[in-house]
């Protein structure tokens, strides 16, 4: 929705006033593209950016606002915060909602007048930095007025390109600053090398190699302008100059046509220009020629690229047609938008790509993607994409993961990968459930037998994360490996998905081996306390034990015993049996949500946000927990908790996300939950039914249409009364992936009081490997 930030609060106030009421408009709802607000999550804990990007695009062209040391802080992980009064410039790569910083490549900033500062300055003493006004954004488009140079700046993006458009004042000379020194996170010795040159046809190309989160990381660029350069200056600000520059005709540094070094900034001059200046930039992870080819692969001016990208967003967002009150509709379509940004394309237009071995590969018969935040996205993001994106796109994701394993020097699947490089961040081998889920759902274009080999290779790589001990002892010992309790249960779940795929492929030996490993979560569960705990190599549980303690590198990963004691999504029934049955499981769930945190300080833990008792919606380990009441035969309690979460954790405002969006996982949770079901255990082929938050949704799944209708939905009618599937009563709290892919209608009848009969029986509950709900 393209609105000025001044107008937006007034609109939202009017929308929120009616948020509890069903939509009763007789005019057509705005298109999905116009329902998206890219500013949601750009403040608070969301870590999103408002700039221009195409679906899964290589380029994320967005403003950076960080200042000095602030760029090293957690809050600027996407380079931008909505409340910042100034803009540093516009760079071409950004993460959407990550919990860590990097990127911000090739920053461009317009400057007007006779003096061109080559340093950014600060908010109080600006150089080329400028104050901002009148920001607007919609999918594939961003615009802002830079008040200091008096320039209206617009951004759009294609698949592998970003396009800037700058309207300068007619009475002042127009310039651009291209800063190859700028990054979002100031890693020590960050720029290993960079280069820039002007080619005979006026195209500017260059590169830089970065020491950062994933290191070393190489990226190349090519730039063309709609107006000719009238002058330029390439400058290095290195104290100890180690560079080579090549001069063109004439004398002086302004005539350099090529410069290499570790701290390069360029001044590009255009004199006075009557028309807006368009700047088209392409990226490549391969080489400068690849960037030039990518530039040529997407012809057209700013308006043509913007229209093409808007059409791509209309198609991608149109896979789900939603009828809901305006605030909810904005929330959900923005969530869907955030879910469709990553994994991002990494392969060039000619099919080549740079792998984790730093070698160039391809063409490979598929489009290489990177930016896999797998510890987050295996839960809901990738399962959502298997439904609303074509098989070919999902096959690209899986084939990219397998290619990453083949080219990784250690022979394992990606863990947290971007720009083709591995960061080794987070735990588990969660490429495994992504691959298994896609294969088990029958996604075409994947060699699932080869995929299984890659999955097993990762699960059997003994040097990784305590796997050697895990395979010998059946758990990860805390006196030999940090975060051991979390690693044990996450490995066990991943192992279960390997076993599921092996069974489907007829590999009984592999299935049996990993089915045994899938039960390893029990080896770290302490039935006496009712919590998952870290064990030492001698078999004893580590003491002292505090289930509320959160300390990085301790027993758990970004959480504590309260969250991780529920992480056996493939075997919740087995857990409930250990807890003493349904009633005790429900009591423990209630104790988690109702816990009094008033005497606990979590300010040291950056990822701990969105607390409802000890339920932490701002981070992923809790995301499935509200659905677990249904596993204990009390689906109405799931319905109550979901309402509590949705109303407190999502708002159509810049600070409307309770925690990091984490490359779409926080958003995908909302999309699924709004539709009335959620993939608690990807790989099971099932979705646990919760309750809907929209009146009607129509999902495009392949060539079929799956419709969800919520009759009588209102703030008062918050409970599910009855459910039908294709007109027949559905007496279970689960719907299968096959039923959704077949098309049809899931219809809820909502009511003001709980239905304590529906879906309470053991056979009516979602899948569990052992115990309750086993099928």
TrEMBL record:
GO terms for biological process: carbohydrate metabolic process; glycoprotein catabolic process. It comes from the Bacteria. InterPro entries: 6-hairpin_glycosidase_sf, GH-type_carb-bd, GH92_a_mannosidase_put, GH92_N, Glyco_hydro_92, PNGase. Residues 36-284 form the Glycosyl hydrolase family 92 N-terminal domain. One of its GO terms (molecular function) is carbohydrate binding. Residues 1-25 form the signal peptide. GO terms for cellular component: cytosol. Keywords: Hydrolase, Signal. Residues 291-751 form the Glycosyl hydrolase family domain. NCBIfam families: aman2_put. This is Glycoside hydrolase family 92 protein. It comes from Sphingobium psychrophilum.
